[in-house]
Write a structure and sequence with these properties.
The complex is a heterodimer of chains A (124) and B (169). Chain A has 124 residues and is mainly α. Chain A is 77% helix and 0% strand. Chain B has 169 residues and is mainly alpha-helical. In chain B, helix 5 (102-117) packs across helix 8 and helix 6 (120-131) packs across helix 8. Chain B folds into 2 domains: 1-79; 96-169, Winged helix-like DNA-binding domain superfamily/Winged helix DNA-binding domain (Arc Repressor Mutant, subunit A, Orthogonal Bundle). Classes of the chains: A mainly alpha (124), B mainly alpha (169). Chains A and B meet through helix 1 and helix 2 of A and helix 1, helix 2, helix 5 and helix 8 of B.
Chain lengths: 124, 169
């Protein structure tokens, strides 16, 4: 029985293999076209997109995320604890009026920048 | 994929008895394999491909069953279907035309007819085990059934085919 089965299997295998040679060209062309289409799908899937053309190691991903968070935290802290401006606008206005009222000292204040520079130069 | 596509077509053709449907099934199976399993190793592809192929054939049977139910409800819709069957029969006659290798062609025609007439599960088990060379475990995976079922279907298929081809073995 096993011998007969072996013969049957061998004959079947051979006949089926031979039948592949009889396939029409149109069928072979369709099969080839289907295969190429499937392979192209894989290629398109694996091809990197335009934005991803610069290689970026995956192990850097957590580092970059951490750096982003650290930067945001730092900016927030600096903004939050920034000291209030030293001059009050109302005080500044009064000061200006006082300066303008004293015309003799006006020239001194106008040249203040120059005197400060001169002081720096002489001290150095 | 190139090495199995012809055999895949024949397997689908045995199941559907229709050339275009068989080609569509193979195309769908190839696309599915490429889209979902391209990352797998080459050794994994044959059983995966056959699993997908059998799944597509099963889907085809379900669609056909549904279609046939509609044809029974609306008989006029079945005319095209019967034309297709006539075309299939005409093709079978062409395949079995005698020539110088008369005996081989006759055996081939008998085998093809016998395989086509096998119940689907027996057909699957026979073609995957005897032709594709898948082992019992791989065939069971492709057929989504137990290894015991594969052995049973395969054994029954062998008995049937031996009866049909007894004059050649």
């Amino acid at each position: 029985m096993t011998d007969k089965n072996d013969k049957l299997l061998s004959l079947s295998h051979q006949l089926l293999d031979d039948s592949l040679d009889d396939l029409d060209d149109s069928i072979l062309a369709r099969l080839r076209q289907s295969r190429l289409q499937a392979v192209n799908t894989v290629n398109q899937k694996t091809k990197p997109s335009y934005g991803a053309s610069i290689p970026f190691p995956s192990w850097l991903a957590p580092v970059s995320t951490g750096a982003t968070f650290a930067t945001i935290a730092l900016m927030t802290t600096l903004f939050w604890f920034q000291p209030p401006p030293a001059t009050n606008s109302q005080e500044s206005l009064m000061e200006d009026i006082h300066l303008l009222s004293q015309s003799d000292e006006l020239e001194l204040y106008q040249n203040m920048e120059f005197y400060l520079w001169l002081e720096d130069e002489t001290s150095s | 994929m190139a090495s199995v596509e012809k055999r895949a077509f024949k397997i689908a053709y045995f199941a559907t008895k229709n050339q275009d449907d068989a080609l569509d099934i193979v195309q769908d199976a190839m696309m599915k394999l490429a889209q979902s399993y391209a990352h797998k190793t080459a050794d994994d592809w044959p059983p995966l491909f056959h699993r997908i192929l059998q799944s597509k054939i099963f889907d085809y049977y379900r669609r056909q069953k549904l279609k046939n139910q509609w044809f029974r409800l609306f008989p006029g819709m079945g005319e095209k279907h019967s034309e297709e069957n006539d075309m299939d029969n005409a093709e079978d006659v062409r395949h079995s035309k005698p020539d110088e290798k008369f005996e081989q062609h006759q055996a081939m025609a008998k085998l093809e007819q016998a395989i086509q007439n096998l119940p689907h599960r027996q057909q699957q088990a026979f073609l995957m085990r005897a032709w594709e060379g898948l082992d019992v475990a791989e065939t069971a995976e492709a057929m989504s059934c137990s290894q015991g079922s594969v052995k049973t279907h395969y054994s029954r298929a062998i008995h049937r085919l031996r009866d049909v081809l007894q004059e050649y073995v």
